[in-house]
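Batch manifest, entry 17 of 40.
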Amino acid sequence: MIEVLVTLVIVSVGLLGAAAMVINGLESNRNAYLRTQASILAYDMADRIRANGAQLASYTGFAFDSTGEDAPDLPGCFTSDAGCDSAGLANADLAQWAGALEGADGGVVLLPAAQGAIVDAGGGDVTITVSWIESQWDDDDEAFADQAQNFVLRFNL
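Output type: structure tokens
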């Protein structure tokens, strides 16, 4: 009888360890997904800026925080038959990017508490920063804690 109880304890500890590994793996996969989404959003904006490089000044200085504001509206020229000039296209690009950060495109929030900023570093160098909150294990508290993460993309036009 004692042998059966010892076996049950050993099996129980093993199953608890396996469950902890699965939970840790799921959290790591989620964080990797968030990093991938941040990368996609930053490169999307970089491609938009490259395609409309003459309007770099219209893009730079833009900052968006999905927790405190709504995404800007698309300019009227975006849906008109005449289309947008390069300045209007820059405004449309920024509105669509802010909408993606906010999750307005289809209602899917790609990044929790997303923020985005575009800075002209001079000489054609541009920095795009995408920030978000992700859950990570804190060894000191022995619990998951929210931590701010950044994805920074620097490129030259």
